[in-house]
């Protein structure tokens, strides 16, 4: 190996590798391939964007749930608004002649009213939605969310979270009123539990189906109160008539109390059908008198003249070794002054908390028990 | 010092002129190729071409008024690429440095063969040096960078460049001396 003056430097310089021929062509081919690759990426990106746009367009075009007309038609309306669905924010006045879609929400303002009709095989069914009511339209049944509705005609049906009500008979005229404690409206479950459904049969009959209870058949002038978690409370008209027949009887000798009293009056004695003895029933009932008195005191705040007698008919069912009130009926007194729904609900609530011993034969026991309420402050 | 690309052609390159960029490649291809071969052996050509692809993408950002010359800037890109490539090559078989093509200087066949033999022996000796010494040597003697430019490419002080070059050349002298003696011995035996 020859070594110049700076021999190693020169030797290294002489050994310098040189780029092969057409090296620059290779670079240009790479650049061209890179451009093609970028073009492909751009094309794929454009395709993806196009596909995404197409999907979004299709999603946007997906029609909302189709509007299905119900069999209900509005025949008259005053101070009433209609929303197509509960989720729909836009509300419009309900126009007479309007065929109502399923799911529509009808709100009746104070002083307003809406009359609806539908034709069935048995005739024309009418529903009058009272003031300050909210009703959702179903295909056949109406769903009462709050307020009052009057059902007229056969097969008129009303549903709700408390109970379903069906009018029976061609001449049926049934008033249904659902009241909720507004204090609990912010808590849906509590709002549902604070509801009280009152059904009054003005003509014909009605079937009331409360959740967890056997259906109740009501005749003309009967009334039922249904509250969640409580046994339905039925007021029979025939008992009221029977009570009216005893109108001439003297007032019961109630225990003297400082203000008010509630207790078993003399005129109608307790009657028991089944495996519980009178002393046991009396003892359990007496344990509830404090609560009953509280119900009465609360009712007096609305009506200070409220007084009279009622007879409660209870069905006590033995479950898990204990007797519980599963059904209750109130036979109103002759004056009707105790026709106070809140108080009746309160009484039923108090009685439903009562704990009876098991019946001797394990069978249900029917107890008919009279109570007298008097305001001694008057 | 190797001649740099003129500013007019550089401007055309920065504006995306393909013809001007080809001139740039042709101007720097030997320097880049030599560095890449020194660092990556038979992968040198691939890395050298990839260097120019990177240069093409980044030339718009090169500042002619900056501290680095265009050659230094391009060789820095090549150096980084070869370092990254070396990391990649560690995971796959490498090819010896002496299989790379070489120059076509001498007119006579015998002289050409002799020079080729010498060059192959020197490259083989370079292949035995540590990477940083090979890089310093290639940047100085094949890419014509001065100490400061090498220091900038290698991101080390100039003193470090000097010592690396000195150690590299000393090692080459030893290697080539031994190789020369071996070759001479072989000839005598024939």
Task: Write structural notes for this entry.
The complex is a heterodimer of chains A (378) and B (190). Chain A is built from six helices and 18 strands. Chain A has 378 residues and is α+β, with helices and mostly antiparallel strands. Chain A has two domains: 69-229, Jelly Rolls, CATH 2.60.120; 240-375, no CATH class. Chain A has an 18-stranded mixed sheet that branches. In chain A, helix 5 (278-300) runs antiparallel to helix 6. Chain B is globular, with a radius of gyration of 18 Å. Helices cover 72% and strands 0% of the residues of chain B. In chain B, helix 2 packs across helix 3 (44-58). Chain B is mostly helical and 190 residues long. Chain B has a single domain (7-189), classed as Orthogonal Bundle (Rna Polymerase Sigma Factor, Chain: A), CATH 1.10.1740.10. The chains are: A alpha+beta (378), B mainly alpha (190). Chains A and B meet through helix 1 and helix 2 of A and helix 2, helix 3, helix 5, helix 6 and helix 8 of B.
Largest sheet data of chain A? 18 strands, mixed
What class would the helix/strand composition of chain A place it in? Answer: alpha+beta
Please state the overall shape of chain B, judged from the principal axes of the Cα atoms: globular
| CATH architecture label of the largest domain in chain A | Sandwich
How many β-strand runs of chain A? 18
Radius of gyration of chain B: 18 Å
> What's the rounded overall pLDDT mean of chain B?
80
Task: Determine the CATH topology of the largest domain in chain A.
Answer: Jelly Rolls
Mean pLDDT of chain A: 79
- Determine the number of helices of chain B (DSSP H or I, runs of at least 4 residues): 8
């Amino acid at each position: 190996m020859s070594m110049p003056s700076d021999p190693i430097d020169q030797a290294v310089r002489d050994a310098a590798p040189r780029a092969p021929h057409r090296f620059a062509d290779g670079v240009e081919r790479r650049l061209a391939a890179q451009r093609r690759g970028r073009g492909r990426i751009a094309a794929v990106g454009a395709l993806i964007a196009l596909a995404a746009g197409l999907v979004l367009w299709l999603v946007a075009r997906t029609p909302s749930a189709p509007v299905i007309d119900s069999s209900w038609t509005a025949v008259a309306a005053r101070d009433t608004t209609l929303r197509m669905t509960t989720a729909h924010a836009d509300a419009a006045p309900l126009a007479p002649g309007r065929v109502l879609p399923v799911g529509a929400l009808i709100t009746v303002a104070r002083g307003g009213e809406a009359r609806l009709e539908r034709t069935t095989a048995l005739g024309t069914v009418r529903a009058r939605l009272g003031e300050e009511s909210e009703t959702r339209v179903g295909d056949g049944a109406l769903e009462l969310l709050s307020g009052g509705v009057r059902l007229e005609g056969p097969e008129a049906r009303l549903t709700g979270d408390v109970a379903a009500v069906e009018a029976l008979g061609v001449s049926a005229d049934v008033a249904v009123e659902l009241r909720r404690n507004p204090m609990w409206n912010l808590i849906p479950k509590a709002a549902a539990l604070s509801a009280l459904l009152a059904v009054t049969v003005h003509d014909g009959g009605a079937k009331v189906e409360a959740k967890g209870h056997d259906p109740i058949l009501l005749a003309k002038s009967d009334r039922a109160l249904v509250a969640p978690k409580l046994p339905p409370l039925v007021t029979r008209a025939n008992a009221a008539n029977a009570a009216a027949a005893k109108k001439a009887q003297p007032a019961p000798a109630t225990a003297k109390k400082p203000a008010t009293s509630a207790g078993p009056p003399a005129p109608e004695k307790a009657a028991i059908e089944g495996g519980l003895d009178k002393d046991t029933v009396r003892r359990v009932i007496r344990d509830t008198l404090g609560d009953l008195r509280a119900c009465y005191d609360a009712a007096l705040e609305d009506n200070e003249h409220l007084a009279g007698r009622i007879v409660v008919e209870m069905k006590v069912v033995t479950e898990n070794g204990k007797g519980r009130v599963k059904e209750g009926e109130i036979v109103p007194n002759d004056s009707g002054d105790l026709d106070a729904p809140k108080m009746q609900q309160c009484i039923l609530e108090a009685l439903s908390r009562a704990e009876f011993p098991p019946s001797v034969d394990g069978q249900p026991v029917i107890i008919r028990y009279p109570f007298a309420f008097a305001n001694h402050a008057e | 010092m190797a001649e740099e690309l003129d500013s007019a052609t550089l401007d055309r390159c920065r504006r995306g002129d393909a013809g001007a960029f080809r001139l740039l490649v042709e101007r720097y291809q030997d320097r880049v190729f030599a560095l890449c071969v020194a660092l990556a052996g038979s992968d040198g050509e691939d890395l050298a071409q990839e260097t120019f692809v990177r240069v093409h993408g980044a030339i718009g950002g090169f500042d002619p008024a900056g501290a680095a010359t265009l050659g230094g800037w391009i060789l820095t890109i090549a150096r980084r690429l070869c370092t990254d490539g070396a990391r990649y090559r560690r995971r796959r078989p490498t090819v010896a440095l002496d299989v790379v093509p070489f120059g076509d200087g001498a007119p006579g066949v015998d002289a050409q063969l002799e020079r080729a033999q010498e060059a192959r022996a020197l490259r083989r000796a370079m292949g035995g040096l540590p990477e940083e010494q090979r890089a310093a040597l290639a940047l100085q003697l094949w890419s014509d960078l001065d100490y400061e430019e090498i220091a900038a490419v290698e991101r080390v002080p100039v003193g470090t460049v000097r010592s690396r070059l000195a150690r590299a050349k000393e090692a080459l002298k030893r290697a080539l001396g031994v190789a020369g003696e071996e070759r001479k011995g072989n000839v005598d035996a024939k």
